[in-house]
Amino acid sequence: METTVKNKPNNIMYLVFAMVAFGFLGLEFGVLLISRIIDGRSLAQIGNWPIHWYGAIAHWVITIIVWLIGVYLIYLWAKKKDIIKDLIDFKLSNRVFYLVIIAILTVIASAMVQMFISGAQFPQVFSEYKGFEIMYGDKAFIVTLFQVLYYFAEMLLVFVMIVLFQKFGEGVFKNTYIPYGSIGLMLTWGMIHFISHPAGALGVTIWALVPGVLYVYGKKSFLPVYLLLVLGFIL
């Protein structure tokens, strides 16, 4: 038992690995250098949308691979430290089922509010599909599919950040009821959207509060929080 306790990481390591996850998200900016070559764009066009449908898919595929590598490396660290069961509850139960319903209703309610305030289309993924149809014609569906896969990969890293920021906060402040994961997510992933996607950055930053709260009061259940994160970008 003493050996197991000694093997546990100290609080600062949770913060370090949360920032490692955030760093892997930021590597997408590096992927732009590669994907713009595949797409045939110049360096001056590095931040522009891909001209060709295969340029968009190439960007998302490379980014997904990079992000999944990040998730896997953090998983290996957590497994070695034997802390996965302390961080995430993968079990399915009636409670988890109710939390899933709450997650879905929360996303739908948020989407309805956005639609009322800003005229955003519901579901968001359909609006994006129509945009891709204008840009890429009959390749819009396959481009949309890869963008959805991109969201699934991104939300895995976002979930990891919530978990690790929460564990860091609980260890430092000795309070398990404050959503430190939300605070960490707002100050990192939320704020970076002011650079990458300024138009929707404020909404994303505010939304970052929600999954961290669900994680804390949902007793660290994986499925409801991950579903909330993914649906938040699809609906």
Automatic annotation (TrEMBL):
UniProt keyword Transcription regulation present: no
Keywords: Membrane, Transmembrane, Transmembrane helix
Membrane-spanning parts: 12-33, 53-75, 96-120, 140-165, 177-195, 201-218
Signal sequence region: none
Tree of life domain: Bacteria
Name of this chain's protein: CAAX protease self-immunity
Lineage, top ranks: Bacteria, Bacillati, Mycoplasmatota, Mollicutes, Acholeplasmatales
